[in-house]
Design goal:
The protein has 414 residues and is α/β, with parallel strands linked by helices. The protein has 3 domains: 190 residues, Rossmann fold, CATH 3.40.50; 115 residues, Rossmann fold, CATH 3.40.50.980; 89 residues, ANL, C-terminal domain (GMP Synthetase, Chain A, domain 3, 2-Layer Sandwich), CATH 3.30.300.30. The chain is built from 11 helices and 22 strands. The strands form 5 sheets. The chain has a 9-stranded mixed β-sheet, with helices on both faces. Strands 1, 11, 12, 13 and 16 form a 5-stranded mixed β-sheet that branches. The structure holds zinc ion.
Length: 414
């Protein structure tokens, strides 16, 4: 990464978008011409490089759904004609569930996690315990790349052999962690049990929800600063938290769109939609790659000085979305709205359809009788997030089963 590109984080976002469009055009006219599967998709849609003129004009181009990859790869093995080099010229090839084969090519930074690591406080000379798997999946090598590029040493630990990991990390003075948040907790518990002293003071976590309670436990009980990121096996880095830990900045090396899952038009700022990204990667033609993940964009400027918008967190997958009165409701949104109410033990949303109208009620369980204003506050919070009027009632404890999904859709459609 050149210095100018590193500085992109701090440039006005409109300039970043223009820079991205220029780069994507260059790739389309250059390297991406070597990917027959990519050219086929453009031809079917009837668009050419010349149609890409502004950030908005990218909407004319076809979307590549993550869910299409297995079929595309099966029809034209192994990569659906979407990569620009012969298979033998790749650096590594992974197999993710699906099955999806992921190419990893010879670029100085194929997955671009350096900005995310810097924002998490990682610095040259750090010793990173990398607890992502190196077997078949890209995660291990992906994060090792960024650690090495920043000038850090990486211990390729993977997951498992917890006791050995703790003792290796302690003996080598590992001061940084990359992995699942839950596994960091497992390591810390094991260290307590065996009496090893670990020196980990910063952590970058991903691929699993990080509850704020766990984050503050890491901070308060162990003095570990934890920051999280978001990306996929195909794309690499998409977004990451800064020191503020209030949403994840778009990485300037990807163009991010948040689209309505049905219409595939941009959603209003702040409303949830599917994360669709274009990666400026000369080897893999990921133009408008739809991740299947739901998030929302916060365009407010961040006090950290980075100018890029932020993702407010990953709310879940597109296939978990339910439509109520034409609006999308996702369990992750409900959780975001209701979980701050500490007196609520359990809750669910019940959707019924009467006289051709959808009705949603949030049922909550609590140890105590909740005052009317608490129920109103919950209703207000959900309404603000979903833009949907609902009612909130308290139900007897035991009404909601432990393993019940958050959305109970009882509508009948005949
Ligand atoms: Zn920030």
């Amino acid at each position: 990464m050149t210095n100018t590109e590193r500085d992109l984080e701090y440039q006005p976002y409109s300039d970043v978008l223009e820079h991205q469009i220029r780069k994507i055009r260059e790739l389309m006219a250059g390297e991406w011409q070597k990917a027959p599967g990519f050219l086929r998709r453009l031809e079917e849609t009837g668009v050419t490089t010349d149609d890409l003129t502004t950030p908005e004009s990218i909407r004319k181009f076809p979307i590549l759904n993550k869910s299409e990859l297995p079929a595309l790869q099966a029809a034209d093995p192994p990569f659906g004609g979407l990569i620009t080099v012969p298979v033998g010229e790749l650096r590594r090839i992974y197999s993710s569930p699906g099955p999806i084969y992921d190419p990893d090519g010879h670029l100085p930074s194929y997955y671009r996690w350096e900005r995310a690591f810097s924002a998490a406080g990682f610095r040259e000379g750090d010793v990173i315990l990398n607890c992502f798997a190196y077997h078949l999946t890209p995660a291990g090598a992906m994060f090792e790349e960024a650690g090495n590029n920043l000038g850090c040493a990486v211990i390729p630990a993977g997951i498992g052999n917890t006791e050995i990991q703790v003792s290796v990390a302690a003996h080598l003075g590992a001061n940084a962690y990359v992995g699942l948040p839950s596994y960091l907790k497992v390591l810390l518990d094991k260290a307590q049990e065996t009496g090893e002293k670990m020196a980990i003071k910063k952590a970058f976590v991903i691929a699993e929800k990080l509850p704020e309670t766990l984050r503050s436990q890491f901070q308060n009980a162990y003095g570990i600063q934890v920051r999280q990121g978001y990306g996929t096996a195909e794309v690499g880095a998409i977004a990451y938290e800064c020191g503020e830990a209030a949403g994840m900045h778009f990485d300037p090396s990807v163009l991010v769109e948040i689209l309505h899952p049905d219409s595939r038009e941009p959603v209003e700022s702040g409303s949830p939609g599917e994360v669709v990204v274009t990666v400026m990667n000369p080897i893999n033609t990921l133009l408008r790659f739809a991740t299947g993940d739901i998030s929302a964009m916060d365009p407010e400027l961040c006090p950290c000085g980075r100018k890029s918008p932020r993702l407010t967190g990953i709310l879940g997958r597109v296939d978990q979305v339910t439509k109520v009165r034409g609006l999308f409701v996702h369990p992750g949104q409900l959780e975001q709205a209701v979980s701050p109410f500490e007196n609520v033990e359990k809750f669910r949303a019940v959707i019924v359809r009467e006289r051709a109208m959808d009705d949603m009620t949030i049922e909550v369980e609590s140890k105590q009788t909740l005052p009317a204003h608490t129920l109103e506050d919950i209703g207000e919070k959900v309404k603000n997030l979903l833009k949907l009027g609902i009612s909130v009632i308290q139900v007897e404890r035991g009404t909601i089963a432990d393993d019940q999904p958050l959305i109970d859709d009882r509508r009948k459609w005949e």
